[in-house]
Task: structure prediction
Amino acid sequence: MIHDPKLELHLHLEGAAPPAFIRQLGDEKGIRLDGVFDSDGAYSYSDFKGFLDVYEAATRVLQSPEDFARLTTSVLEQSREQGVIYTEVFISPDFCGGRDLGAWRDYLAAIQEAAAAVDGIEMRGVVTCIRHFGPDAARETAKCAVETAGDFITGFGMGGNEGLYRAADFAPAFAMAGEAGLGLTSHAGEFGGPASVRETLDHLNVSRVGHGVRAIEDVDLMRRLADEGVHLEVCPGSNVVLGVYANIDAHPIDIIMKTGVPICVSTDDPPFFHTTLPQEYAALNRAFGWDAGQFRKINRMAAEAAFCDAATRADII
Ligand code: ADE
Ligand code: ZN
Result:
């Protein structure tokens, strides 16, 4: 079960940086990272806002295309080690040259070259705006996505603090990305309730929702997700560590699965949540008895929802 090929659709590039990687870069550049690590060297935060702050503080050491190339190599090698054959990675131009299109092209070229050099795992990039940076920044990010859309950049998404702004505020950014043919996904229904997911569907035209788990609180919304085939990128370990659910047994993933809403299992920001994809699978096996057949079904659903061309889909299904 743990050794079967896996697909991952929800992984943040910076969020996948191990603490040792960030500390090493900080040392090389003489950048102090006060408050980022606890006494054991793990990322240190106590709630979602603290998590976002530490996440952004850690990205301060990622200052060049070369840094992102090193990060990409490290992240893909880790994923490959865990049996991942296809991964979609959220990449934020905010952290890659501050949304400047020329700089973004340089960062992206380095990331793409690094990804191509890691055999045995296929990567696609989902250009991701950060909700709490606001709608204007999101539009600039969408411009970066549109200008670099192609074989590697195949999607546009949004992460960040779901409590700020309304989904409709980001409609221009998502419309621009959608018109360029990019697949669309947005975080919603993680800390926000069903209304946040509904607004995201109404205004952002997404085919996938990041997390989306709190949709389970609304039967009509679950029916809509199933009818429209909207795919939920579920990250159980992330939800437990960030306190959305008390523990894996209280997580609704098994119920969601039974409603017919398509889902995948992902890790979000694995070192922040002390997890890996095989650990997520093992926890789901323990909590809900999910077996190899169930994981194969999950990975088939992921392949169907992936932002890739038909030939790649046929390869990974
Ligand atoms: N960015 C990275 N991880 C995130 C999460 N779990 N929710 C919102 N934004 C994020
Ligand atoms: Zn996420």
